[in-house]
């Protein structure tokens, strides 16, 4: 249940007028002051809603040359609200929508149309509900489109208002607008005589997924799915996008402690500055990739294979002499950077067709270039997760990179392999990360038989059961040029 403010009105007035400072308030009073300020904000917003309704009445039913907002130089009530309050367009629309849902309207015939949502209007006027909460309730219930009875809609409105104010028996706190939106939909599903079937059918009919060639290169992805389809996709993405932050400890007890410089500052900073949206797309591609490798339907026993054609010289770092030398995707004929072809060559189901000078395909089957299952197991046992500093992507999400590229004669053996997640693997081939030889740890064996029998047995040093790591991944640039919002969540 909301408190209508317990702090002395004078104290809050002084705070608003900058005559007092929040720094002087003890913790408990600061929270009460925020409650009080929020209550005032709701009261002011409710007054703005009533003013907006009046402005709309003086604009909508008058000829254009007498319309209040037009005479004031605005195209609509929303534009006027946006300019005067300084809010986003969506917020101005929200104010206008709540104003028309909670005020009496004048019909074209001249009569009065009663308030559509009187309970919401009352709670808003008394400062119990905020405008976004009122909007969640009214816009949610508006979707019944006349299919439910007026009494049922009233009952639903009463329930939602009580939940929004925090007065419902089950509530601890007033429900936030997001909760009210979900609850309003649930109410409609309940009171609609047809149930939720028609709305679901519409969602189902509207579903689509489209890839369209973008004018700036690459593809735009657009789509629509049903609630349950989104749930499945989101659950799958969550696991990919938010990797568990775990501290790995191997058999010999070594943990992934950050490496410190002479002043004790960590040298290897986490170097994943992808936005949540970028991570989501990477996750989508990774999921499709894994499916293609493991369980996609086979055509004549063959996994779906994408072919990249590239000249051997170009892959080895020589400039391309003809257009055909560039790495080319077989399906679309689009060219891709050499670094990307090189990444696929390391560890992917993608078939790389390397051609010699005469354009004849060289015998470079995927079998020899890819790490075998047992090699990969050994690399996983040693590396345990993506080796990029700060990245803990587990082995299942990682590709195996050839430290000395396979096209440069690097062997497909365990010592030449390193685990990297798809994102860091790409960054490495693009030159944003480098791999250097890690200093080899020296292992000293303690004496097996203590000479003094009175000495209590000490914990014996154990040999690591896995091979020591030979490689260390570091950022190639001291400070990377950030073009994206850093991920700090
Ligand atoms: Zn690689
Ligand atoms: Zn990584």
TrEMBL record:
<dbReference type="InterPro" id="IPR003870">
    <property type="entry name" value="DUF222"/>
</dbReference>
<dbReference type="InterPro" id="IPR003615">
    <property type="entry name" value="HNH_nuc"/>
</dbReference>
<keyword id="KW-0540">Nuclease</keyword>
<keyword id="KW-0255">Endonuclease</keyword>
<keyword id="KW-0378">Hydrolase</keyword>
<dbReference type="Pfam" id="PF02720">
    <property type="entry name" value="DUF222"/>
</dbReference>
<dbReference type="Pfam" id="PF13391">
    <property type="entry name" value="HNH_2"/>
</dbReference>
<feature type="region of interest" description="Disordered">
    <location>
        <begin position="441"/>
        <end position="489"/>
    </location>
</feature>
<feature type="domain" description="HNH nuclease">
    <location>
        <begin position="374"/>
        <end position="426"/>
    </location>
</feature>
<feature type="compositionally biased region" description="Basic residues">
    <location>
        <begin position="460"/>
        <end position="489"/>
    </location>
</feature>
<protein>
    <submittedName>
        <fullName>HNH endonuclease</fullName>
    </submittedName>
</protein>
<dbReference type="GO" id="GO:0004519">
    <property type="term" value="F:endonuclease activity"/>
</dbReference>
């Amino acid at each position: 249940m909301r408190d209508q403010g317990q702090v002395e009105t004078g104290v809050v007035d002084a705070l608003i007028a900058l005559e007092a400072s929040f720094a002087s308030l003890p913790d408990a009073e600061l929270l009460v002051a925020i409650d009080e300020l929020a209550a005032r904000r709701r009261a002011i917003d409710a007054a703005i809603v009533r003013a907006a309704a009046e402005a709309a009445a003086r604009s909508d039913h008058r000829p254009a040359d007498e319309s209040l907002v037009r005479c004031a130089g605005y195209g609509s009530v929303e534009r006027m609200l946006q300019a005067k309050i300084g809010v986003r367009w969506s917020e101005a629309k929200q104010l206008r929508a709540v104003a028309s849902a909670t005020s009496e309207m004048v019909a074209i015939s001249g009569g009065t149309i009663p308030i559509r949502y009187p309970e919401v209007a009352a709670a808003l006027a008394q400062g119990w509900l905020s405008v976004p909460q009122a909007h969640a309730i009214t816009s949610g219930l508006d979707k019944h489109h006349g299919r439910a009875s007026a009494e049922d809609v009233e009952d639903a409105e009463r329930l939602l208002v009580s939940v929004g104010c925090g007065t419902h028996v089950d509530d601890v706190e007033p429900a936030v607008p997001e909760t009210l939106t979900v609850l309003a939909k649930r109410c409609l599903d309940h009171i609609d005589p047809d149930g939720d079937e028609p709305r679901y059918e519409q969602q189902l009919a509207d579903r689509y997924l489209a890839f369209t060639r973008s004018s700036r290169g690459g593809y735009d992805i657009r789509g629509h799915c049903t609630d349950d389809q989104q749930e499945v996709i989101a659950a799958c993405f969550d696991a990919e996008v938010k990797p568990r932050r775990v501290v790995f400890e191997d058999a010999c007890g070594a943990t992934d402690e950050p490496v410190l410089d002479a002043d004790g500052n960590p040298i290897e900073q986490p170097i994943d500055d992808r936005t949540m949206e970028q991570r989501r797309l990477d996750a989508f591609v990774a999921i499709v990739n894994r499916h293609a490798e493991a369980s996609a339907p086979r055509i004549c026993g063959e996994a779906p294979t994408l072919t990249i054609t590239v000249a051997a010289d170009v892959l080895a770092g020589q400039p391309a002499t003809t257009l055909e030398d560039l790495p080319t995707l077989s399906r679309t004929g689009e060219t891709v950077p050499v670094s990307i072809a090189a990444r696929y060559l390391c560890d992917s189901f993608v078939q790389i067709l390397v051609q010699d000078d005469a354009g004849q395909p060289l015998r470079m089957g995927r079998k020899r270039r890819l790490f075998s299952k047992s090699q990969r197991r050994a690399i996983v046992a040693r590396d345990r997760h993506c080796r990029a500093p700060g990245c803990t992507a587990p082995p299942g999400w990682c590709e195996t990179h050839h430290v000395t590229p396979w096209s440069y004669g690097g062997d497909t053996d365990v010592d030449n392999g390193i685990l990297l997640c798809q994102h860091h693997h790409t960054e490495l081939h693009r030159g944003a990360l480098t791999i250097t030889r890690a200093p080899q740890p020296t292992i000293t064996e303690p004496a097996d038989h203590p000479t003094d029998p009175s000495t209590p047995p000490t914990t014996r040093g154990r040999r690591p059961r896995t091979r020591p790591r030979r490689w260390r991944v570091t950022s190639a640039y001291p400070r990377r040029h950030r073009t994206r919002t850093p991920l700090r969540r």
